[in-house]
Every structure is written in C-alpha cells, then in structure tokens.
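Changelog-linked ticket: adenosine-5'-diphosphate example.
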Amino acid sequence: MSSKPMLVALTGGIGCGKTTVLNAFRSLGIPCFVADEVAGSYYNDPAFLEQVRTLLGPSVIALDGSANKQAIAAIVFNNPEALKQLNALIHPRVWQDFLSFANRHQSAPYVIFESAITYEYGFDRLVDKVICVYLEQEERLRRLELRDHSTREQLLSRMRNQLPAEEKMMRADYVILNYEGNPRQRQVRQVHQSLIRCTK
Ligand code: ADP
C-alpha cells in the first residue's frame, strides 16, 4: 500500500456501537476522524452558513445569526434534491478535511474515518479498507431507545434512510460483532494487527 498512513473507514448502522469501537482504536493510538462531528462544525462558519442560505432560503439562519438546524432538517427531509445539494456542499469538504487530517498524522500506520454513511455516499471507494461494526436491528433499537430516548418509530425511520446493516457487513473488509459480552477489545486488536500487516 503506497499511501502513508493508510486510509480506513469505520461504518455500521446507527446504534451498532461505532463510537464505542472507535474509542477502542483510539486507545491503541490510532488517529480517528468523526465525519459527523466535523460536518456539524461547518455550521459555525459564517461563509458556509451563507452557502446554505443561498441553497435553502433565509429560514436556515436563526435570529441570532446561528444555524437553524431544525429548519434545515425540515427542508431537506421533504426535498431529496435539496438534500443532495446540501450534501454536495458538505461531503467533498469533509473528505478534504480528512485528507488534511491524515497528512497531519504521517507517522500513524493508518487513520480512521468514522461515518455511518460510508457506503451510501461512496467514501468506501476512496479508502483502502472498510471496517463494519455489526449488531442486529432489534438490539440496536434497544440500545438507542436507552441512549437517545427516541421512539421506536423515529429510530426505524432513520434506519430506513441507510443501507441495511447486513449489506454493509457483507461489503466490508473487516467485521466487528458488537454483541454484549463479545470480546470487542480482542476483535479490535486483531483488525488492528491485520491492518498493520497491510501497511508493511
Ligand atoms: P453508534 O456510534 O454506532 O450510533 P454507540 O457506540 O453510541 O453507537 O452505541 C450505542 C449504544 O450502545 C451506546 O449507549 C453504547 O454505550 C451502547 N453499547 C455499545 N457497545 C455495547 C456493547 N458491546 N454492549 C452493550 N452496550 C453497548
């Protein structure tokens, strides 16, 4: 593999345990980039917000000048074309920021790009390897009901917007099964060692 560090995506359905697994990679010293967090920070940038206003209209800016995330969500929820255009503003920028992040970690064997929508938006084609965290839907719902206090219907509608977890699992290079009691740390260590071997 020529690029140094190697680029690795970590994905999986909502509630499968991506954040938990990412923390296990962090504890091994691997630099981790959380795409959602970085994308969320763009809304603090007035120039970005202005682009969103041009795209979606004045209601996206609240009276205090900050982003009105509820208004943005309401517009794109009912308008797939607007969502596509908003994504076209966000995703290329996220990817460039990830490449800069990777550049800043030249001494790491690999860096991780965590995104639930790795496959949905084609980030899998830009990385060297994909890790999928898998957990069946019922257990994900149970954990999310506890974590987010969302209703089952709200969670199911979010899940329906993503590829089925089973498809992500089948397409990935590595799968981590995050069932309760499963030795997550051991699985992470095995994937880590295999990735290190790929870089040699
Ligand atoms: P994601 O980032 O994929 O949405 P999280 O890592 O936030 O998922 O995990 C969802 C919830 O499940 C969290 O409350 C987390 O603490 C819990 N969780 C994660 N892994 C396990 C596990 N192996 N056993 C029990 N609970 C877990």
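Closing comment: Example verified and attached. Residues 12, 14-20, 143, 147, 178, 180, 184 surround adenosine-5'-diphosphate (CB under 6 Å). The chain has one domain: 6-198.
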